[in-house]
Amino acid sequence: MYQLEHIGIAVKDLEASNALFARLLGKAHFKIEEVATENVLTSFFQTGESKVELLEATSPDSPIAKFIEKRGEGIHHIAFEVADIYTEMQRLKSEGFQLLNDEPKRGADNKLVCFIHPKSANGVLVELCQEIKEARGEG
Ligand code: ZN
Hints:
Layout: E1 3-11, H1 14-25, E2 31-35, E3 40-47, E4 50-57, H2 63-71, E5 74-81, H3 85-94, E6 105-106, E7 111-116, E8 126-131
Parallel strand pairs: 1-4, 5-8
Antiparallel strand pairs: 1-5, 2-3, 3-4, 6-7, 7-8
The structure holds zinc ion (ZN).
């Protein structure tokens, strides 16, 4: 079963948007994290069991910069938490979905992530994510 994990929103100015969403949601973001491989700076707000992720480009060739250039600020992707991202990627491939990466990659918020091309999902960029469980000391 897919659980809505977060909604990603592309913003031009993370600091201004953090203030705006703090006013909107009545509470501040709980973390800011840079994902250097994607050239984005992200912040997260807890909204019940799900989150809002704000994304600001840190370079002009960031996917977020390109998105804003084309479509302006707004909802960029929706993310679902899955129990086993590898199994789900195989399942979606066999269902004919176009995945944007062949292997899960490390995303923000301690997750393995994979994206489904919007072309194969009614124009919506869909992220699958799975929490990375750090190796435990006790074996
Ligand atoms: Zn995301």
